Every structure is written in structure tokens, then in C-alpha cells.
Amino acid sequence: MAVPAFCNSCLCEPRNSAPRFCLTSCGHVLCEVCLRKGKKDECLICRSACRTLVLSKEVSPDIQSLFMRIDTLIKKYSKEVSQIAEFQEKHRKQFSTIHKQKIAKLDESLRKVTQQMQQMQCMKPPEKTTPLPFPSTSRNPFSIPSRKQNVCASYSLHSSRPSTSETMDAMEIDPLPSPMRKV
């Protein structure tokens, strides 16, 4: 059952034989009889400029809802709100699932790259040694100079490999001829 409408001027209610009712743009309800008493495009109640709309079953649902009972409106809109909330929750879960999958892929890529970096750190060339200030003539030509041991515990993202020129500078040249070489 709809909320009863009545004319805000003469207080008559709509009946089968009664005149039609109109809704003004300023929010007043007037019967056709009272509407004719006032000036054109002016509300009889508040005297403001207004437009009118004849109330019938063909008016928009928004206008019809103004005359519905509150409990009927609550049922109608709670159903709509529930459907909207369910849709949004489903959409949020899908969004979350997609992002969780992307994060898992990124975590796996990060793990692989970290492993590769650790392997590269283990394979990096030995660090330079400083040459002795005075070359020893009694040195064994086949001896290998001692070098610092390479520890593969670094997770640095920057390469610490020496440049080619640094490697060339660090090379020691033995002035004694090799016994294997022909002179």
C-alpha cells in the first residue's frame, strides 16, 4: 500500500472521481483544482518558480519511490544493496587473487635472481695481490702467489669484478726464463 498523497493546499486525497495530483519541482503536492488557482509556473504553497509533473503510474521509479512505504523501500533497496555488495566482494576477491598470483611469481623470480647472484659471487675472479716491493731472485718460478680466499656470502647487487686494465696491472711478470721455454 502506498503512502496516501494529499493536496498541500486543500488537503483533499486522491479518489477515483477526484482530480489528478501534481508534484511541483519545489516538492509540494497539489490537486489540479488548487493548481489552477495559482499563477502559472509558481507554487501555490511557497510562491517560488516551479514546474509541475502529473502523478501517474507512468512516472519514473524515482518519483514513485517518494510515495512508497518506508518498509517497502527498505526491502527493495536492501535487496539491491545486497546484490551490489555481493558483486563488489566477488570482484575484490578476484582482484586480490590475481595480485597474489603476481606477487608469488615476483617472489619466485627474486629467489632465482638471488641464487644466480650468489653463484656469480662464488665465480668472481680472485682479488688482486700487491706485488712485493723487492722481487726475490730465489723464488721458485713455478710457485703461485698466495691470494685472499673468496667467500661467497655477499648479497651485493653491484659487481666487484676488476676491470681488464686492473687485472693487467696486477699480473706479475717473472724476469727469469721458464725452463720449458726455448731461449
Note the main attributes of this structure.
single chain, 183 residues, mainly alpha, Herpes Virus-1, three-stranded antiparallel sheet, 4 helices, 39% helix, rod-shaped, zinc, zinc-finger, RN212 ligase
Please explain how this structure is put together.
Residues 122-183 are annotated as: Disordered. Residues 7-47 form the RING-type domain. This is RN212 ligase. It comes from Polioptila caerulea. The structure is a single chain. The protein is built from 4 helices and 3 strands, in the order ββαβααα. It has helices at 32-37, 61-65, 70-123, 164-170; strands at 21-24, 29-31, 52-54. A hairpin with a 4-residue loop joins strand 1 (21-24) and strand 2 (29-31). The chain starts with 20 loop residues before the first strand and ends in a 13-residue tail after the last helix. By secondary structure, it is mainly alpha-helical. Among the domains are: 1-68, 2-Layer Sandwich (Herpes Virus-1); 70-123.
Question: What's the layout of helices and strands?
Answer:
Elements lengths: L20 E4 L4 E3 H6 L14 E3 L6 H5 L4 H54 L40 H7 L13
Antiparallel strand pairs: 1-2, 1-3
